[in-house]
Design brief:
With 465 residues, the protein is of the alpha+beta class. Helices cover 14% and strands 31% of the residues. It contains four helices and 30 strands.
């Protein structure tokens, strides 16, 4: 490590000698700083710990969940949430961060809210609109403080949006060149902000909660400036994100305001993740991911709100596949670890109704006489094609055991219980004897196909799928 510091010190002395002999301009300073960044990172890169797969951060709350008006499960909620907004730079006014405390509330609680806004014109209105089960409460927000935008704002941003709308993660140390590029983008953004006179405003307010949030819970912040421009974000707590492909691969888009819960993983493989034509806000309490080499696209007015427990990163996505039949388990979320799973891009589906039995999978055409292996709590343990029903293979009834199943004289050997020996088969009614088909896995007497002399009147076990 000492060698690293000595090398950086040598570069610094070299840079000072250079500056003593040349006229120092802003451009020269930037070049020198870039050289120092490259040298420092290059020297320390071997000492930095390698990145490891981290579990999704769970919100600091109970595991209590709720059901919205569509019947979708949502939650749990954090006790308190601070958040950062990732949206395109240079569009004002722009909500950039905020705080809600507490987030999980009951009637009688006092909920406090605060947002930070960047704007090149004075803000004239800031509102919070809280939609709960029985209506919307509008809370005016008051100015707390304002200040000129500083370099700290750019240095401390974890998520940076490039000019072409790609979300860049400022903590990623894997690419030295990209780090230098990010440095220059920060300087350029700061200079532009200074030239435009960007001011950072902080607004806050509170209200006394008088309604529950079991089926509906949205927090919307709206700001307007004196030029008539506005910005808003919608934190749709009660609307879990849906519409993103559950398996396979390719580019995909969010299609509504929604939330990736603290225990959830969302994303796609082998494709970019963006927004469709709507001006949507995606709140990230859990994890949103795409593969390395692909991008989060900030487009069509879309925004990401990343909370303190949320994370956006690059890596692989897996589905649970405990029986290795290439179908992800039904109602089991995407995940970021491989144990007992299959890559999302390789999965043939995500609705395996029993992930403990490889016979059970969508599209199964075979019938089976034994129930699932595993899945002991399954309500339909013979649903092997995962269509939410148990389809019996043999359903004909009214079979009659005995003559005229056989016509004597041909020399075939029929069971003695079903007619005279040495007979020839002839047309007769087939099916279960007794008038009803037995349940899946149960046995009863069955008259087989009349043209098959070896079947005749036998005991058969009902098979299903």
């Amino acid at each position: 490590m000492l060698r690293c510091y000595l090398r950086v010190a040598q570069l610094q002395r070299h840079s000072l000698n250079f500056m003593s002999k040349n006229l120092i301009t802003r451009k020269n300073i930037l070049i020198i700083l870039a050289i120092l960044i490259i040298a420092g990172i290059g020297a320390l890169v071997n000492y930095w710990p390698q990145s490891t797969e981290a579990p999704v951060s769970a919100p600091t709350a109970s595991d209590e969940t709720y059901t919205n008006e569509k019947g979708e499960k949502w939650g749990p909620l954090s006790e308190e949430v601070d958040f950062t907004v990732a949206s395109k730079d240079g569009e004002y006014p722009s909500i950039v961060s905020g705080l809600i405390s507490p987030l999980k509330v009951v009637p009688g609680d006092v909920q406090k809210m605060e947002i930070t806004i960047n704007s090149d014109a004075p803000i004239v209105e800031a509102l919070a609109e809280i939609e709960t089960d029985n209506g919307i409460e509008t809370v005016p927000l008051q100015l707390i403080e304002s200040s000129v935008l500083t370099e700290d704002f750019f240095n401390n941003r974890k998520y940076i949006v490039s000019e072409d709308g790609k979300l860049l993660i400022n903590s990623d140390q894997s690419d030295i060149k990209e780090l230098v590029n990010k440095f220059f983008r920060k300087v350029k953004a700061l200079r532009k902000a200074e030239a435009q006179g960007i001011i950072q405003y902080t607004y806050g307010g509170e209200w006394t909660v008088h309604d529950t949030h079991v089926t509906t819970y949205h927090t919307t912040f709206v700001v307007r400036d004196e030029l008539g421009r506005s910005d808003q974000i919608v934190m749709a707590w009660s609307d879990p994100c849906s519409g993103i492909r559950g398996y396979g691969s390719g580019a995909d888009s969010f299609t509504a305001n929604c939330t990736v819960a603290g225990n959830a993983v969302e994303g796609t493989e082998l494709g970019n993740l963006g927004f469709d034509a709507g001006n949507w806000t995606v709140t990230v309490e859990g994890r949103v991911r795409v593969n390395s080499g692909y991008s989060f696209k900030i487009e069509n007015g879309g925004k990401y709100i990343i909370t303190g427990s949320g994370l956006m990163d690059f890596g692989l996505i897996y589905l649970s596949d405990g029986d290795s039949d290439s179908y992800g388990a039904n109602n089991v979320a995407k995940r970021t670890y491989s144990s007992g799973g299959i890559r999302m891009k390789d999965a043939l589906g995500d609705n395996d109704c029993c992930d403990e039995d490889a016979r059970a999978k969508p599209g199964q055409t075979s019938y089976y006489t034994s129930r699932y292996t595993g899945c002991s709590l399954a309500s339909k343990p013979y649903d092997f094609n995962c269509d939410s029903s148990e389809t019996k293979r043999f359903t004909n009834t009214g079979g009659v055991c005995g003559f005229p199943l056989y016509d004597c004289g041909s020399g075939c050997s029929a069971p003695s219980s079903c007619g005279p020996p040495a007979c020839d088969c002839m047309e007769a009614s087939t099916g279960w004897v007794g008038g009803s088909a037995p349940a899946c896995g149960s046995s009863a007497t069955y008259i087989g196909t009349p043209l098959d002399c070896t079947i005749g009147c036998t005991s058969r076990t009902q098979s299903c799928r």
